[in-house]
Structure formats: C-alpha cells, structure tokens
Design a protein that fits this description.
Layout: E1 23-37, E2 40-43, E3 46-57, E4 65-73, E5 76-85, E6 96-106, E7 111-114, E8 117-120, E9 126-128, E10 140-147, E11 153-161
Parallel strand pairs: 3-5, 8-11, 9-11
Antiparallel strand pairs: 1-2, 1-4, 2-3, 4-5, 6-7, 6-10, 7-8, 10-11
C-alpha cells in the first residue's frame, strides 16, 4: 500500500512465532536456533519437544543441524526421532531445497528471506522460468543451495520461479 501521513499501513500482521498445524506425521530439518535442553529446543523457530523413549542420534545443541520426525501438536513437534546431522561430510544435508515466498529482498547485499531463512543469491549459477531481474518480494520460488560455513545463510545455486 502507499504511505499515509509518512507511515506504512499494515495489511497483515503476524507474531513472528512460527507455529505448525496439528499433523500425525511431521518432519523438519534445519538448524537448532534455540536450545533449552536436549528434550526442548527449536529448529528454525519451530518448537520441538522430545518424547519419552524417542530415538536420539547424536548430541543436540545450539547451532547444530538436525532432522526431526514425530507428530505436530499444539504448535510444536513432539519428536519420536531426532538425528544430528554431521556438517560438510553429510551428503544428505549437502544440498538444501526450500519453497516459499520471497520477503526482505536486498538487491545490494543480494539476499532475501524465504520461510525465515536468509538466502544469498550472489552465487546463483542457474535460474529457471525467470532471472535475477524477476526476484521480488511476494514471488514464489524454489531455492536449491548449500549452507554457508557459519550455517546462518543458504547460498543459492539454483532458483526456480513457481
């Protein structure tokens, strides 16, 4: 919308807290972004509670990559399995694929946000159904890439417009 009296008028607000809908088979992969204990943590902002008797492979800690499987209930995932993924030698986590809508596009830094994950498109080697000029807030895309060394940004190698 246009500014009104020098201020932007909100058309939609959200709390910033990621919430998942109830579902019997829920899975999430990503960084542990908040850590309370080995049985309570967040993955990319989604609350995870490890169920009693759950299978846990590896040591969960802030900043590690994990794969969680369980059920989604009351806005969190109740994990029946947690697997810590091992850095650069872990081929399964070598390439990441994300789908979502672009927000916070920064053409100077060549970054944007996708599902609350910072994506750098500075090194994109392939665009499908569009080009860098088609990047815009609100555009739906699929991004394939790898995590940066500090695991804070997804370095895109391919962007497909959906």
């Amino acid at each position: 919308t246009a500014q009104v009296g020098g201020q932007w008028v909100a058309t939609r607000l959200r709390s910033g807290v990621r919430r998942v809908d109830d579902f019997g088979d829920a899975r999430i992969r990503g960084l542990v972004t908040a850590f309370t204990s080995a049985t309570q943590f967040e993955v990319q902002g989604v609350a995870v509670e490890v169920a009693a008797g759950a299978r846990v492979e590896g040591t969960v800690a802030q900043g590690v990559m994990v794969e969680v499987r369980g059920r989604a209930e009351n806005g969190r995932i109740i994990a029946s399995r947690v697997k810590v993924r091992g850095g650069d030698n872990d081929d399964e986590f070598g390439e990441v694929e994300l789908h979502g809508t672009i927000s916070a596009l920064d053409t100077t830094a060549k970054t944007f946000m996708l599902r609350e994950i910072r994506v750098s498109y500075a090194g994109v080697t392939e665009y499908k159904d569009g080009s860098e000029a088609n990047l815009a807030d609100g555009r739906a895309v699929e991004v394939k890439g790898r995590w940066t060394d500090d695991r804070s940004t997804l370095a895109a190698a391919r962007i497909e417009f959906e």
